[in-house]
Every structure is written in structure tokens, then in C-alpha cells.
Design a protein that fits this description.
By secondary structure, the protein is an all-alpha fold. 72% of the residues lie in helices and 1% in strands.
Length: 497
């Protein structure tokens, strides 16, 4: 109780509450703009923390973190363009709902799911941070490898139209991820004697190109020569309907727990949590055949999962001094500048500070839900903008976002190239999600497989004899076998009837 009262005295001051509100608002705006990542937003505003007293500046960074992860879902739903990598899975169900005229409904579900996922992870952070950290501490190279392999197996679930095309897309993503210097041996691969490719192909320009640029090209093609009518979109009420809440609440809670756990594992992130949550939602859904066509369960799950990572990533940072992702790495540096040294002793020596951070994160999630729900009617107006006006704006944002990452024109060319390739693949009925999964998980699979082989002296059994990695590999096998079996069983029943 003493720790709670001390935390309230730290986080519930007027400057701290204002800092959190400001951070969430800025984060949502940054999340909406394609190409501006969560990490970029937190890094850009890191110097501003020096203007605040105590941990108020740190709380502002936490607000940006929470707001930006949620904000990325808004363009993902309305424009089929992920504001952040973590929102890529949201497009699978969000954009089909917009096509049905349900933009307001999709935004309500997304906002509520984001809040539920964030609050679940925050409660877990407060109650069981040391326990979750001890589990994540057991992760070594074999466990990371097995987790990434499990993530890749999700391609089967998100490629319902054509598993073969999904696997081809995944392989393309994995191949692109091999470009650059090998993390273990130091050999250069597929660099074509250019210094730009030594560090690999930048992920964000590819993401912007595949989803935003290519989709805008298709939009221009579809609307060329046609008479455009302004859509009148009405949003009734602030909260999702009772039926939507009943259909999604279990998926939100399950995904919140999944995202929290994945967030505790350093090196993972909201993108992995979102796809794993989506896969599990489809596995447990009453009508899995609706996924890919605008399923509310499939929309709520990744949003709860990627927002739950915000609390999960704080676990290793506060208890072990190990950042859970790139954002918490910046926050870790900000804490150290303020004279706060994260680690096991933090809970004993400065409990008011650490629990103040936890309480501030909870307030950030509440502000995020409030701003999201009250802003829905304004967000939804994006759909009302004629495509001949919206398309040039998206083009400009694509170029600015791609250039702003590294201030490199080459990134712009990469974005345009990825967009043209993405346009062709969409025309050939390929899904972009497997490519993104391959890009995200490729480096994780390769480097941890190599490290595992070094650890075991080339003995491949290391992946199966360790309990955690063995469990993930078993789940991978089940993920690969169960969907085809269920489809076969469904077709057999259809033929019998």
C-alpha cells in the first residue's frame, strides 16, 4: 500500500497527467502518419523530457509509446496503409469492414481492443513483473529460434485464399531479409558492392511501398475515368455494440495475455504479437471462414495483442535493466539520465518511481481510449475525402516517410520499387502479410539458429530437448497441420451432405 500511495504522489500530479495526455496525443498523430515509427517519435521527443521535473518527461514518452501503437491502426483500417509495422495485421480485417461501410464500427472495436490489451498488460506488469521477467530470462538462442519459426507458421492461417502463394510470399520476405552482413560470420551477401546494402534493406520503406504506395496505385487505376461521389459516413454512438463486445471480449483478453508475454521477450515486438494474436483468434473462432472478409474477432485480436506489448516490454526493462524493444531502450536511457537505474534493486530502492511509471502507463491507456473514442467521428471523415484528393496526399506521405527514416534518397527508391512490385503481386492475388512476416522474422530465425548451432556444437537436438523451444516447435507443427485437416474435414462433410 505504501508503494501505491507513493506512486500516486508521483504520477497523479498535474504536470505528470498533462505530460501523459500530451504524449498520447502526439503519439496518435505520429502513428497515423505512415513511415513515422513509434521509435522515431520517442527518439525525436527524447530531448523534451529535460524540460520536465521528476519522471513527468518519462511519462510523456510512455504516452507517445501507447498513442503511436494505437494510432497506427487508424490508417491501417481506413486507408489499408499501416501507420506502424505493428498495425500491419489490422489491415487484414479492418479495410474489408471499411469497404462494407463500417469504418466507424471498425474504429470503435480497434480503440476498445487497444485499451483492453494495454490495460491487461499494465495489470500484469504491476502484479507479476518479477515472475514474467524470470520466464523471459530463460530464453536463449534456441527459444528465440523456435518462437520465430512458430511465427512463420502463421503464414498458413493468413493465406486462406492460396497457401502456396502465401508460402512464396514468405520465402520472398526471408530472402530479402538475408541481404547485408551476416550477423555471426561477418560475410556480406547480395550487396552488389554497394555500401547501402551492407546494413540490409531498410524495413520501413519496404513496408510503406508494399502497403501504401501499391494500394494508391491500385486506387488510381480503379478510379481513373470514373465519376467520383463523396461518401457520407455516419458514426453513431461512442462505444461498440453489445453484440460486438460479446463477440470480441474473449479474443481481446486472450490476445492481451499473448501480447504481454511476447512483450516480455527482448527483441520481439508488436508486429509479432499482432500476427500471433490474429492466428490464435482464427484458431478459436466460431466462424473462421469469415476471417479475411471483415471479421470483428480478427480485427480485435491483433489490436489487443500489439498494444499489450507496451506493458510487456516494460517488464525486462524495469526488473532486469534489459530493454524489451527499441522504444524501451530509449526510455531506459531517459531513466538513467534522470538518475534512475532499472534493475532488480529498483523495486527496493526507488519503489515510488517504478510504480509511478506503472501507474502512468495505466493513465496513458485510459487517455488513449478516451481520445480514440471521441476522435472516431473525425478519423472516419478520412473516408469521405475523394480519392483524387487523398491519393496525392498519401503519395507525399510515402515519400516523406521513406526519406525521413535515414534521410536517404535510396530509401525512397526502395519504397517506390517495393510499391511497384507490391502492385504487381496484388494483381496476381498475392497477400502482402506473408512477405512482411518473412522480413520481420528472417533475421531472428537466421541469427538464432546459428547461435544455437554454436552452443550445441552442431547438435540439432538442442531445439527439441529444451522445454520452451520444444513447446514452440510442437505448436508450429500443430499450426501447420490443423488448418489443412479442418479444411479437409469441412470439404468432406460438404460432399457427404
Amino acid at each position: 500500500m505504501e508503494n501505491l500511495f507513493a506512486a500516486m504522489g508521483t504520477a497523479l500530479t498535474l504536470p505528470s497527467i498533462f505530460a501523459v495526455f500530451l504524449g498520447v496525443f502526439i503519439g496518435i498523430v505520429m502513428g497515423v502518419l505512415p513511415g513515422l515509427t513509434v521509435t522515431m517519435g520517442v527518439a525525436l521527443l527524447f530531448p523534451v523530457t529535460f524540460a520536465f521535473d521528476g519522471i513527468s518527461g518519462i511519462l510523456m514518452l510512455l504516452g507517445i509509446y501507447v498513442g503511436a501503437v494505437y494510432g497506427g491502426s487508424i490508417p491501417a483500417i481506413l486507408l489499408n496503409t499501416p501507420g506502424t509495422p505493428a498495425s500491419a495485421a489490422t489491415m487484414i480485417e479492418g479495410y474489408p469492414m471499411v469497404k462494407r461501410g463500417e469504418a466507424g464500427r471498425a474504429l470503435k472495436i480497434s480503440t476498445l481492443a487497444s485499451g483492453v490489451g494495454g490495460i491487461i498488460s499494465n495489470i500484469a506488469l504491476i502484479l507479476v513483473a518479477p515472475l514474467l521477467a524470470s520466464i523471459a530470462l530463460n530464453f536463449s538462442a534456441p527459444e528465440y529460434f523456435a518462437l520465430a519459426i512458430f511465427g512463420i507458421s502463421i503464414i498458413v492461417s493468413i493465406s486462406a485464399d492460396s497457401v502456396i502463394k502465401g508460402l512464396i510470399g514468405g520465402v520472398v520476405g526471408l530472402l530479402v531479409a538475408t541481404v547485408g552482413i551476416d550477423a555471426v560470420t561477418g560475410y556480406t551477401r547480395f550487396t552488389f558492392d554497394t555500401t547501402y546494402l551492407l546494413g540490409g534493406i531498410s524495413f520501413i520503406p519496404i513496408l510503406v511501398g508494399l502497403f501504401a504506395f501499391s494500394q494508391t496505385l491500385i486506387s488510381i487505376e480503379e478510379t481513373y475515368g470514373t465519376t467520383l461521389k463523396k461518401a457520407k459516413l455516419k458514426v453513431k454512438g461512442l462505444l461498440p455494440s453489445r453484440n460486438d463486445w460479446r463477440a470480441t471480449r474473449i479474443h481481446m483478453m486472450r490476445s492481451g495475455l499473448i501480447g504481454t508475454f511476447i512483450g516480455t521477450i527482448p527483441g520481439t515486438g508488436g508486429d509479432i504479437a499482432a500476427y500471433v494474436s490474429y492466428n490464435e483468434a482464427k484458431r478459436f473462432a466460431k466462424q473462421p471462414e469469415e476471417f479475411g472478409k471483415g471479421s470483428v474477432e480478427g480485427l480485435a485480436a491483433p489490436e489487443a495483442g500489439n498494444n499489450a506489448v507496451t506493458g510487456g516490454a516494460m517488464v525486462p526493462m524495469t526488473t532486469l535493466g534489459i530493454p524489451g524493444d527499441s522504444v524501451t531502450a530509449i526510455i531506459l536511457g531517459a531513466l538513467m539520465v534522470q538518475g534512475i537505474q532499472p534493475g532488480p534493486l529498483l523495486f527496493k530502492e526507488q519503489p515510488d518511481q517504478v510504480y509511478g511509471l506503472f501507474l502512468g502507463l495505466l493513465i496513458a491507456n485510459l487517455f488513449m481510449v478516451a481520445l480514440g473514442l471521441f476522435g472516431i467521428r473525425y478519423f472516419a471523415k478520412i473516408v469521405d475525402v475523394p480519392k483524387y484528393v487523398l491519393s496525392p496526399i498519401i503519395f507525399v506521405l510515402c515519400f516523406v516517410g521513406a526519406f525521413a527514416i535515414n534521410n536517404s534518397l535510396i530509401d525512397v527508391f526502395v519504397m517506390v520499387g517495393a510499391g511497384i512490385i507490391g502492385y504487381a503481386l496484388i494483381k496476381l492475388k498475392f497477400s502482402m502479410s506473408p512477405i512482411v512476416l518473412g522480413l520481420i522474422l528472417g533475421p531472428m530465425i537466421e541469427s538464432n539458429m546459428q547461435r544455437s548451432m554454436i552452443m550445441s556444437g552442431g547438435d540439432i537436438s538442442i531445439f527439441f530437448t529444451r522445454p520452451i523451444s520444444g513447446t514452440f516447435l510442437l505448436l508450429t507443427v500443430l499450426a501447420l497441420i490443423i488448418p489443412p485437416l479442418l479444411d479437409w474435414r469441412k470439404k468432406r462433410k460438404g460432399n457427404v451432405s
